[in-house]
Design a protein that fits this description.
This protein is of the alpha/beta class. The protein is about 45% helix and about 15% strand. The strands form three sheets. A five-stranded parallel beta sheet has the order 4-3-5-6-7, sandwiched between helices. The protein has a five-stranded parallel beta sheet with strand order 9-8-10-11-12, sandwiched between helices. It has a two-stranded antiparallel ribbon with strand order 1-2. Strand 6 (about 120-125), helix 6 and strand 7 (about 135-140) form a beta-alpha-beta unit. It is globular and about 55 Å long. Bound molecules: fructose -6-phosphate. This is Glutamine--fructose-6-phosphate aminotransferase [isomerizing].
Length: about 350
Amino acid sequence: GKSGYDHFMLKEIHEQPRSLRQCLQGRVDELAGQVTLEELPSLSPTRVHLVAAGTSYHAALYGAHLLQERGIPAQPFYAHEYASFTPPGDDALVVGVSQSGETADTLAAMREAHRRGADTLAVTNTVGSTLARESDHVLYIRSGPEIGVAATKTFASQLTALNLLTLSIAAGREARDVIASLRDLPGDVQAVLDDSKAEQVASAFADSDSYFFIGRGLHFPVALEGALKLKEISYEHAEGFAAGELKHGPLALVTENTPVFALVTGDGEAARKTIGNVKEVEARGAPVVAITDGLSDVGRYADYVLPIPESHPRVAPILANVQLQLVAYHVANQLGRPIDKPRNLAKSVTVE
Ligand code: F6R
């Protein structure tokens, strides 16, 4: 059942501290600064292709960025495109990211990779799924069943599992810091859940023309995901943009009736540049909602702040995403949408 929540989606958002704990359980050694993924052999790929669809594609985008940061050539692909245009590279480790493990596009891409002799790895929630059975290796994200059509807790666990995968392939000097933030992640997510003003923000903006989400680097996939979640369940128009791309076109869409949700953490170069983008939209009259750890002064330019705890830059997007899940949920709820079963959508898309 829904354990007292009005919708499975809200229940699953609130389950994240537990599902993340399960994802991390027994896999991280804080003292040694090491990750052990028992189900995997030691992998040292010369390059990685990540294939996925929808929300899982956003996880793939994030995973590719993590691996690239560690110097491993990695590229994300939409599964349906990879299936019909597989780039050369039989030496690639091909990672299929799929909650259900039954998405036809992803299975087709992985079968194509397999046919070419590539080593394949499934990152999935579903034990015994077709993807798990057909792949050479499997990394389970251990979220438990997800009933809401909109993926929530499984996205958080995909990002977490891809962090673990990256640490197991190429640990690097910062491994200890990442692991410390991963250890704190379930509690930090709980803190966001306990004290979110997302419902208030949703009521302030429930009759907007469009909703925009901006982020750079590892926050970009979360900007895309925030927009996808909102459009799926609220039926409102929403778009995610790489913050630096705004001025190359999308800025033309910005008005006083298009709230802009800006993901800004840390106080480095990326934060400074995104704050520059925030000023650009503010100058066009757009309301700004900052999702931030408070380390920069982005709050000064924002109409609302949705705070998140300080965390490692690789982990902060997972926390920021929780605020965006809640915004999407509350906008849809205020519009009276059937949140757990949005029109035209299925939990698992088993046709190409
Ligand atoms: C979005 C959503 C879909 C799925 C996509 C892939 O909330 O649920 O975009 O992410 O259909 O599904 P899986 O991960 O099962 O391959």
